[in-house]
Amino acid sequence: MSAPHASTDAAAPAPVFGEPTPLGLLGLAIGCGALVPIAFGMFPSDPTKIPMMLKTAAWFCLLFGAGCQFLAGIMSLANKNTLGGTLLTTFSFNWVFNWFALDQAAQGKAVDPTVGLAVDFVFIAIFVVLTYAFGFFSKLLFVFLLDIDLLYVLRIAKHFLPGAAGALGLGVGFATIALALIAMYIALAMLLNPAAGRPLLPIAGPLFKSGAAA
After folding, report:
1. Separation CA 210–CA 52 (nearest Å)
2. pLDDT value at residue 213
3. Cβ proximity of 96 and 32 under 8 Å
4. Contact (Cβ atoms closer than 8 angstroms) between residue 34 and residue 81
5. What is the value of pTM for the model shown?
6. For residues 98 and 57, is the Cβ–Cβ distance under 8 A?
7. Does the CA dihedral 83-183-154-136 come out positive or negative?
8. Where are the domains of the chain?
9. HEC readout, 24-40
10. CA 93 to the chain's CA centroid
11. Residues 6 or more apart from 191 whose CB is under 8 A from it?
């Protein structure tokens, strides 16, 4: 499996960099791993240790969630991979915001929920369209983006259903774990299968048939 490649060039040029998608996906998986304890409320019994837990998660989000995806996104764009590069680069800045939100929480502050809600609506609109687009490349990538859609739906629901915040928070936790596992599987498949010369970690083909392939 290769990364989704959308270019307007008549002849696809030779890539400038090696395939960067696994780097972005592994960074995303590591960032998700750092968020899992927080999503499930696994805070230290000693309240004085909670700020350091939040700061630790914040730095993992910044270095891996944001850093790896930004680097992978820029390299993808340099390789003329418009679809994959746009997704990775845009999502990398969301991880910078995750770092900011966690860093503020460690200081006993909270980001503004109204602005966050408005941006979540923008994100869900973007990711619904990208979910459809990635369905032309792989069923697993479609499920990967669908899980991101679910995360934003749960985040928005928490705003309007405060009484169900606990159950919705658990949903966010499980969706975060699923996102990390799918990202790791795709990344490791892209790294391992070419090295082995056979599909040790198989990935299903496209969900939709594009007009170009018809």
Report:
1. 49
2. 53
3. no
4. no
5. 0.89
6. no
7. positive
8. 21-213
9. HHHHHHHHHHHHHHHHC
10. 11
11. 22
The amino acid at residue 180 is: A
Distance of CA 90 to the CA centre of its chain: 10
Tokens describing residue 191: 């790294």
DSSP code at position 201: S
- Mark residue 81 as left, alpha or beta (left: phi above 0; alpha: psi -120 to 50; beta: remaining): beta
**pLDDT at residue 7, as a whole number:** 46
Q: Which two tokens stand for residue 71?
A: 């680097």
The pLDDT value recorded for residue 4 is 61
At residue 58, the 3 state secondary structure works out as: helix
Dihedral sign from CA coordinates of 118, 58, 164, 150: positive
Q: How far apart are CA 119 and CA 64, in angstroms?
A: 22
CA distance 5 to 37: 35
Q: Are 42 and 90 in contact (CB under 8 A)?
A: no
Ranges of residues in the chain with a pLDDT under 50 are 1-2, 6-10, 214
Phi/psi at 194 (nearest 5 deg)? -65, -35
Burial status of residue 85 (CB atoms within 10 A of its CB: 0-12, 13-18, 19 or more): buried
Q: How many CB atoms lie within 10 A of CB 44?
A: 12
- Tokens 């795709």, residue? 186
**Residue position matching structure tokens 């369905």:** 135
